[in-house]
Structures are given as structure tokens and as C-alpha cells.
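Q: What residues go here?
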């Protein structure tokens, strides 16, 4: 610790012997790592002792300039807080999972008198039953079709108070729904159907195959071969589901099993999901290995993998013991609303599934390493290279601004934020220009920056986090004007301008631009954020312009919001609507003769 400041050494000596979370920062004040500890003093001290460390850990320690900590009551609380802080700050050296598109589930709300079968991508603690997720070759809509064919459970959101004269839909007449909406079955009869469907989805009812087989044979006898083929395809799906049945699991039939592997540069975790005694498939995740080792990596992974809208099974199987197992089980039990057991199987079916998960992780890691390095070079690596080229401490958080208008009308500006070289869309902002007359991009940029930094100075949380680098779309003139606007509010943040023609990078106070190779990742990063700011501004401008045109069209007799949008969708621009004759207007689907005549007269009689 001899190379650390006296302040840092003193903080280490005064650390408490409590569980908690520690937050490591670099010289620029950026959070680079967040960890949890059973004993804060012991855990943090390990980073700064003289023992040999893995290269990744040593690289992180070399960048630590300060740290903070939060004391918690229990190790479980520390795990929860760690996961929340990592999700919020996305530190460089932590295990980070991207929010992938959720796999679909089937939902049955048994609190309703006549439940419907719904497809959803999020599970909630709402008392409903959820089944899934469905992926890896099993299409959730195929499962829905099987349930409709075999059990006749409704999948629509129709009213359950029959109206006078209401008729059944087509599904009833072709045997795919019992039509509770028109009183064809009683509540008690329909409840029996729902229970059979729940049993089928839980792996406890095997009558679906017999029913679909009989329907296929009847359709073939009636020479309804198209429907017979549909039933045959459903039998194929059922066969796939049955082939995934896992025997000898014991009393718990919902569990997740995790495989782990690392090559020193990266790590992979594969999750084998078993639901209702059936293996639903395997999900794979790649992450940069921060040299934390298996125990810390898997604990950090689980803290992010299970979120508020995630299903937490009754049992979670890991390949090897971890010290945090008890606290992790408590944390996940609170999240899932039930007792969650973390186990480490050594024999039997669960061990075989763990081996399967590990093989998937090994295969996935070998295929992902090169792609991960490419992405890292284009994002985090590009940020570091750009900071080095510009001679600034960091370019982790970048903000880019652009102006959009047509002849000074509907002037708007955009604020786009990249963190770690990737878009952070939750931080995007858009502005209507309020004080500028005409098409004056310089003045519009000045107003935008003054409003942005005025909000920061006023303590607005949405604008509180300041960028490491500001990017302006333009050359020396735009850059100078924008920099002066920022400084007028007392801020002096590094700022560059990117000129489109030659892609020259202009810096404040330098007349000569920086020229980079077109293949340089630092330049590509600047181009990406500039183009994204332009896209965001243009989209906002078009939305405002369209809303203005819709509002103007709505003033025309016989034209409401729906017909106004139809007109705007049918013509390339607003002037084409004004110049169109009655025949052209009437030819549009959704525009009747009266509306066409009214639109034509509105524009042409006003011009005469």
C-alpha cells in the first residue's frame, strides 16, 4: 500500500467490521467497481495487500484512487444493494448483463371467473399462474394452439357478460373454444377445463396427445387434409415437449441450473431451465472476466439475472459451493416470494444437467470471445482511445447535441448520451427552441446548452450527472459558440466539434483539426453519437410537424383525427394533400366522397 495516498491508507484502517457494500472510484471520480462484503475491513484490505493478484484484479487496483462504503445489517442486504448499485452505475470491472428480450410465458389468472390464456414477456406478483419461458425450438404460439385444440380454453379478451344477440366467434365453430362468453359452458365446467390446462402446463396431464391424435384422424377421414396437417404439426410439438421430460428430479420440478467457465479474458454462464419437470432450454451469457473468480462472478451474476419481473424457481443448482449461498438464498427468497434453496448436486439427474450447462458455457465462450473483443474495442476501448487522443481524463459519458428545423419552423434540438461507448437512451433529452427567431443554428445551440446546464445548476436530478466530453455537430464556428454558451453558466467540460465533410475533429482553442483514419474506433465512436443525435433530432422534428399538420387537417369539416392521419400516411408531404384533386383524395382507403370534397374546398377556396 506504499504507493497509495495517506488518505486512502487511513480510510482502509478505519473500515468497520460490518457487512456492506464498497464502491471503488478512479482519479476522475468514476465508479469502476462495486462489491459486497461480509466484513468490509477484511474484504477491502485484500485489494491493497502485497499478495500476488490476477492481472485483471491488479489492473483495477491500479486505477483505484478512492472508495466509499455503505454498511448494511446483513450479508443478504449487501447482496441486494450491490445488485441495485451495479445496475444503476454499470461499473467497468463488474459483471454486467444486458437486458435481453424476455422469453415469452403463458399466464392464467385464476382469480377471474373465466380465465383466458395470455402470452406475456414479464412475470408479476399478481396472483396469476405463469408457465414458461418458451424458447430453444419451442414456439409459445404452438403450445397455445395445442391447448385450444385439446382443451378449448379461450385466448381472447372478449366481454364475459353476454350481450343480446351476441354470437360465438369462429374458434367455437371449429372446436377451438368452449365459448364461455356466450354462456355455452357454466363457470364450474370452464373451471375444470382451466385446471386441466394448468395440469398439462405443469407436466401432470398427458391427455392432450390423445385428443389431438383423434382430431387428426377425424380430419383425415373427412378429407380435411389441411386441418389434419395442422394437428400433425401439433403432435410433433408435443413430442418435442415430452422428449424434454427430466426424470428423477424429486419433489421440485421447477429449477435453474448454472454452468460456468472462464479463459482468463472472459467468462460465460449458461442457465439450464427446467419447468414442470421439462427442460425448456439453455440461455448463455458472456461477460468480461474481471479476475474475480468463480464464487464472486456467479454471486454477482445471480444478483443481476433475477430481477423484479423474473421468475425465481424453488431450487437453484450451482456447480460448486460458494460462501454467499445462504445469504443469496435469503435474498432470492424475498425476491421470489417463496423459499428458494441453493444446492450443489454431485450425483443424479441434476448433476447431469449441471454438466450439460457447463458444456454449453464452454462452447458459448469459445464462440463469444472474439465477438466480445470486437465490441469492447468499439465501445469501452474506443472511449479510452478517444480520451487519450484528446488528452482528457475520461470519455466514458459523452453528450452530443444537434439542431433540426425547416426554414426556421418547428425548431428543435436533441441531447444524446453514450455511456461506455453505447447509447443510454434513458438519458436522451429533446428541446423545443423557444427564444430564437428564424433558422439560426448557432443561437439554437446556445439556448439548448444554457437550458441543459441551468437545469444541472438548479439541482434537477435528471440533469445532475455531467458528461466527460461534449460533442457538437459542426466545425470551429459551432464549437466556439457552444463552448462560450457552456462557460457562461460556469462549466468548463471538454468539448469537440465533428465537421461532416472531412470528419475533422476540432478542439477548443486549436485552429488545426485532428484527423484520424476512417477505420479508427475513436472516430467511429464520434460518428455514431453524432449520427444518433441527428436521427433523434430529426425524429422529434417530424413528430412535431406531423402533429401540427394533423391539427390543421382536423379543422376541416368531415375530417377527424383518424382521417387526418390517413391523409398524411397516403401522401409524401403536406403540400401534396393541398394540391390533390377530389378524385385523388377519394381514391384513398378510408376517405369518403364527403371528406374528399371538404378537403379540396378547404385548400382551394381559401387560395382563390
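A:
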Amino acid at each position: 500500500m506504499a504507493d497509495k495516498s495517506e488518505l486512502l491508507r487511513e480510510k482502509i484502517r478505519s473500515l468497520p467490521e460490518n457487512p456492506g457494500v464498497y464502491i471503488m472510484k478512479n482519479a476522475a471520480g468514476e465508479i469502476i467497481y462495486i462489491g459486497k462484503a461480509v466484513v468490509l475491513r477484511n474484504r477491502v484490505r485484500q485489494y491493497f495487500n502485497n499478495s500476488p493478484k490476477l492481472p485483471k484484479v491488479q489492473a483495477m487496483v491500479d486505477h483505484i484512487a478512492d472508495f466509499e462504503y455503505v454498511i448494511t445489517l446483513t450479508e443478504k442486504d449487501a447482496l441486494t444493494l450491490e445488485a441495485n448499485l451495479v445496475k444503476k452505475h454499470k461499473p467497468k470491472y463488474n459483471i454486467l448483463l444486458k437486458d435481453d428480450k424476455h422469453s415469452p410465458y403463458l399466464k392464467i389468472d385464476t382469480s377471474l371467473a373465466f380465465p383466458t390464456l395470455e402470452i406475456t414477456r414479464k412475470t408479476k406478483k399478481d396472483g396469476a399462474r405463469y408457465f414458461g419461458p418458451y424458447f430453444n425450438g419451442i414456439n409459445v404460439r404452438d403450445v397455445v394452439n395445442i391447448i385450444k385444440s385439446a382443451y378449448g380454453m379461450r385466448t381472447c379478451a372478449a366481454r364475459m357478460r353476454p350481450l343480446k344477440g351476441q354470437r360465438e366467434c369462429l374458434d367455437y365453430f371449429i372446436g377451438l373454444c368452449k365459448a364461455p362468453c356466450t354462456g355455452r359452458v357454466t363457470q364450474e365446467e370452464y373451471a375444470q377445463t382451466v385446471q386441466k390446462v394448468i395440469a398439462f402446463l405443469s407436466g401432470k396431464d398427458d391427455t392432450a396427445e390423445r385428443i389431438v391424435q383423434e382430431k387428426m384422424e377425424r380430419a383425415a377421414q373427412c378429407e380435411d387434409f389441411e386441418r389434419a396437417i395442422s394437428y400433425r404439426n401439433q403432435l410433433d410439438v408435443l413430442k418435442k415437449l415430452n422428449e424434454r421430460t427430466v426424470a428423477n428430479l424429486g419433489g421440485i420440478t421447477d429449477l435453474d441450473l448454472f454452468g460456468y467457465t472462464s479463459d482468463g479474458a472472459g467468462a460465460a454462464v449458461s442457465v439450464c431451465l427446467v419447468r414442470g419437470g421439462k427442460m425448456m432450454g439453455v440461455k448463455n451469457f458472456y461477460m468480461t472476466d474481471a479476475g474475480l473468480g468463480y464464487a464472486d462472478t456467479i454471486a454477482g451474476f445471480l444478483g443481476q439475472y433475477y430481477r423484479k419481473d423474473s421468475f425465481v424457481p424453488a431450487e437453484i443448482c450451482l456447480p460448486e459451493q460458494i460462501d454467499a449461498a445462504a445469504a443469496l438464498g435469503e435474498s432470492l427468497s424475498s425476491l421470489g416470494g417463496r423459499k428458494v434453496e441453493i444446492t450443489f448436486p454431485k450425483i443424479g439427474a441434476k448433476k447431469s444437467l449441471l454438466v450439460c450447462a457447463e458444456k454449453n458455457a464452454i462452447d458459448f465462450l469459445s464462440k463469444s470471445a472474439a465477438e466480445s473483443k470486437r465490441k469492447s474495442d468499439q465501445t469501452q476501448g474506443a472511449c479510452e482511445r478517444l480520451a487519450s487522443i484528446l488528452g482528457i481524463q475520461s470519455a466514458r459519458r459523452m453528450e452530443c447535441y444537434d439542431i433540426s428545423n425547416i426554414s426556421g419552423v418547428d425548431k428543435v434540438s436533441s441531447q444524446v448520451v453514450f455511456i461506455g461507448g453505447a447509447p443510454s437512451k434513458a438519458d436522451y433529452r429533446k428541446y423545443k427552441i423557444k427564444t430564437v427567431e428564424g433558422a439560426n443554428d448557432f443561437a439554437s445551440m446556445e439556448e439548448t446548452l444554457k437550458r441543459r446546464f441551468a437545469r444541472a445548476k438548479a439541482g434537477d436530478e435528471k440533469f445532475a450527472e455531467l458528461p466527460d466530453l461534449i460533442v457538437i455537430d459542426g466545425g470551429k464556428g459551432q464549437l466556439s459558440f457552444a463552448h462560450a454558451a457552456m462557460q457562461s453558466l460556469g462549466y468548463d467540460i471538454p468539448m469537440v466539434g465533428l465537421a461532416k465533410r472531412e470528419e475533422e475533429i476540432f478542439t477548443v482553442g486549436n485552429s488545426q483539426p485532428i484527423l484520424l483514419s476512417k477505420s479508427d474506433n475513436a472516430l467511429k465512436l464520434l460518428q455514431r453519437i453524432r449520427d444518433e443525435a441527428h436521427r433523434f433530432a430529426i425524429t422529434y422534428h417530424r413528430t412535431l410537424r406531423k402533429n401540427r399538420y394533423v391539427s390543421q387537417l382536423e379543422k376541416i369539416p368531415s375530417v377527424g383525427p383518424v382521417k387526418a392521419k390517413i391523409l398524411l400516411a397516403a401522401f409524401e408531404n403536406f403540400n401534396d394533400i393541398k394540391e390533390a384533386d377530389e378524385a385523388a383524395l377519394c381514391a384513398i382507403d378510408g376517405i369518403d366522397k364527403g371528406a374528399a370534397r371538404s378537403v379540396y374546398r378547404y385548400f382551394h377556396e381559401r387560395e382563390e
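A: Context that may help when evaluating the design: The first strand starts at residue 20 and ends at 25. The two ends are 86 Å apart (CA to CA).
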